[in-house]
Structures are given as structure tokens and as C-alpha cells.
Amino acid sequence: MKARPAGFTLVEMLIVIAIIGVLAGLLAWGVNAARVAILKRAQKAEIENIASAVERYREKYGDYPPDGSSWPVMEAHLRKAFPNILITELNLLNPANATNNAYVRNDNDTTGSHPLGGRVMDPAEALVFFLGGFSSDPQRPLSGPGGPFKANPSLAGTFIFNPQRENAFFEFKSNRLTLSADGTISNDETLYNQGVGNDLLPVFIGAGPSIQQGGVPITYFDSRTYQFGGYYNFYVPGPVATSPNCARPFLANEVNTSFAGTPKPQRYANDRTFQIMNAGYDNLYGCQSLSTVASNGLFLFTSPGGVPCQLNTGNGLFFAPASPPPIKYYLNDFGNLRPVDDNTSNFIDGPTFAESP
Fold first, then answer.
1. What does 263-306 look like in DSSP terms, one character per residue?
2. CA-CA distance, 187 to 287, in Å (whole number)?
3. 195: left (phi over 0), alpha (psi -120 to 50) or beta
4. What is the pLDDT of residue 270?
5. Which of 70, 137, 139, 203 has a C-alpha 20 to 30 A away from that of 335?
């Protein structure tokens, strides 16, 4: 009998290499799936911590923080939270005070950044502004020691952002705030190409893609201003008139049974509290932008089912279709993507919309 040569044949080696390749692929898939699951839960945990911070804020000041979309709502809140607040403090935020408001904010109507007018700050800026902490000075909670603003040593009568804020309800990681290298100004307006100059109000890029990876901010919506007077609250990380990516307050799956007419409109999710939203790993909030309102009408999603509810322009309410689509709805703006599937929020059960029943 011939002795078998030592070593492997070429066929045997190719089989072994193929098996190793399959196992490596399965391992990489499993590791990536586990990583994504961990990151999704990290997002959810962060959202829950922020929501708890909002509740602690309400316990201290007797009111939920506004989202910046309405000056009357914000002024009433600040006067309630800080009964001794000076008018000069209010003037730092009042849209009617001046075009640049001592360079604190730039959402005045004259900038064109907010086509419906009257906004004080956007819903992403409001989250950091209110939860980041105020000064213990009862008259100067905004510009006093430890408040969000401090005097600008380079230009009298103006302010810079104060990175050493006190009495914070949530500790925002500085490397996820859109602040300049010296921490004195926010660059979110430039970062998201919003067409207006930078101001002092940063936004927070939460767990998920970093600022360098193109992450978009966590947004906060106050139930008092989800919808009022023909106005529909929103946040757009980009040009308001052209960007397809938009965050809006989500609707609930239930109808408003107190509505007198028929059919009955959908309620908003958390219609007496607030909504917090992380856009997930695709950086897409998934709601309709202003750029397509004229051609497609204005839609809002229900959560978590994803059914599109169209605006009735006669009464400004949103109604679900008689026969909801069998799959989750997605916008034509995003092609075949379903951008809400990886969104995380305080008003769903699972870590993401897709995992919520």
C-alpha cells in the first residue's frame, strides 16, 4: 500500500477556508447585531433619564419646560418659575425685543429661520436650555452666576454661553453639545446649514451617531404647543424650505373621543405632557418636511404603528384613513427607507419604534 503524503490537498484547504469564512461571517453578524442592540438600549436609557429630568424640573418649578415655539407660553413659564425675574432677563429671549437679543438667540422673525414666526428657540435648543440649569440668583436666573449666559468680556452689553452651569437636571456631555472650541457659542446653525447665524443656544447629540458622524439632536416637544392656532410644531436639521428630514410631535393610536364631530381626529401621544425623540442611527426623524406640504399635504405619523394621518385644512386636525395600510408608512422623500423604525422616544414601549408592539 502506498503511504499517504503528509499535509492537505488543495481541495481540502479550500473547504477549510470556506468553512472559516462562513463562521467568521456569522460571528461578525452576531457581534454587530449585539452591538446594535446594546446601542439601541443605551439610547432608550438616555431618553428615559432625560424624561425623568423633565419630571424633576416640573416638580421644582410646577410646570413642564416650554419647547421654545411660543413666546407667550415661555414668558408665562419663566414668570411662574422665577417670580422675581427682571425684565432685562426676559428681554434676552423675547422675540419682540431686538433682532439679535444681545446675541443670545437668532430665531427672530427677521432672520427668516422660522416661517411661521414667534419662535424663541427651536425644540432641540430648548431641551439643553431648560435642563442645563439656572442661576440661584432669583432676579437673574439666566445671566446670574451659574446661569446659561454670562457677560461677554470682549463686547459690552452682549453675552456668551456659560459652560459652567449650576443646578442642572441632566448632565449633558460637553463633547455632544454643539459648542465652539472655547465653549462660548453654539455652531448648530452652521452645522445643520439652517441659513442663519450661530447663537448661544447649543443642541445635544445624544447616544448614537456623534457630531462628527453627522448625528442630529434630540428634540423636545411641549404638549401645549404640539398644535395651536393653525401652527404645527417642528424641528428641521437643515434649510426649512428644502430639507426633507423633519421632527414633529407624533400622534397617538387612539382617537379623541371628546371631539363632537364625526369622524373623530387622532389624539397626540402624551397629549398632556411632552415628547422626546432621538432620530436613531439613520439620522432621520421621518416626518414630513415643509418642502413637500404643497404637493403632498401635511401628514403626521401615529406611534408606534406608523399610520399616516392627513391634515384636514378646514379644522386643522389630523384624521387616520378609513383603511390603514398594512405596513408601516414611509415618506416618498426617503425612497424605500422607513426612517421611524430606529427612532427612540419616551412615548413608546420598546427601545425603538420597530421593536415596540
1. SPPEEETTTTSEEEEE-TTTT---BPPGGGHHHH--EEEBTTT-
2. 24
3. left
4. 96
5. 203
Phi, psi of 159 (to 5 degrees): -135, 165
Phi-psi region of 145 (alpha: psi -120 to 50; beta: other; left: phi over 0): beta
CA distance 227 to 209: 30
- The span from the CA of 126 to the CA of 129, in Å, is 5
Tens digit of pLDDT for each residue in 115-166? 545 688 999 999 999 999 999 999 999 999 999 999 999 888 889 999 999 9
C-alpha 126/C-alpha 110 separation (Å) is 20
Q: What is the DSSP string of 111-149?
A: GTSSTT---SS-HHHHHHHHHT---S-SS-TTTSTTSSE
Please report, to the nearest 10 degrees, the dihedral formed by the alpha carbons of residues 192, 283, 121, 239 taken in order. 40
Q: From 285, 160, 189, select the one nearest 233 (Cα to Cα).
A: 285
Q: Closest by alpha carbon to 215, among 203, 205, 224? A: 205
CA distance 277 to 237: 13
**Torsion-angle region of 266 (φ positive above 0: left; ψ -120 to 50: alpha; else: beta):** beta
